[in-house]
Amino acid sequence: MQSTQGLELVKEVMATADAFARESQRLFRPHGLTAVQFNVLNVLAGQSRGLSQRELGDTLVVDRSNVTGLVDRLAKLGWVKRAADPDDRRIHRIELTPAGRKIWQKVQPKFAEAVTQVTADLDEKTVRAALVVLKQLQAGAAGWNL
């Protein structure tokens, strides 16, 4: 690919990420949430056994040190709790509390509606192709040699 096209593509991906971040603040802030906090609640909502902090970090693609602080803040808000892993005492599983599930259930439909609005004009083939491209970009970014 020509470098000017690659630069344009990356610029547009970054502009899109900025737009999503800005608009997600408007969606989540009235509920006392950040986009990252919602992502944690959203990931945990689908887990019956919770996740270890490592699994949570891998799923969210964030540094483990950031996960610790994030979980601490969410626990302080009463939305998640650390529970002992029945199979490995060294591991704590992060689980939604009833209050965390309640806030997630309140906000998730609004988030789903926003996603529906944003993607309404995209057909399934376009979405699949975009997902392939975005995953290729993520893999390429992970391998940057700076």
What does the model show?
It is a single chain. A hairpin with a 7-residue loop joins strand 2 and strand 3. The protein has a single domain, classed as Orthogonal Bundle (Arc Repressor Mutant, subunit A). It has a three-stranded antiparallel beta sheet. The longest helix has 26 residues, at 3-28. It contains six helices and three strands; from the N terminus they run H-H-E-H-H-E-E-H-H. The model has no long low-confidence stretch (mean pLDDT 90). The protein has helices at residues 3-28, 35-45, 53-60, 64-77, 98-119, 124-142; strands at 51-52, 80-84, 92-96. The protein has 146 residues and is mainly alpha-helical.
Q: Please report the first level of CATH classification, the CATH class.
A: Mainly Alpha
Report the CATH architecture: Orthogonal Bundle
Identify low-pLDDT runs.
none
| Structure classification | mainly alpha
Largest sheet: 3 strands, antiparallel
Order of helices and strands: HHEHHEEHH
Question: Roughly what percent helix?
Answer: 55-70%
The span between the termini is 20 Å
**Strand adjacency order, main sheet:** 1-3-2
Shape: globular
What is the beta-strand fraction? 5-15%
What is the CATH superfamily classification?
Winged helix-like DNA-binding domain superfamily/Winged helix DNA-binding domain
Summarize the structure.
The chain is mainly α and 146 residues long.
Essential attributes:
146 residues, single chain, three-stranded antiparallel sheet, mainly alpha, Arc Repressor Mutant, subunit A
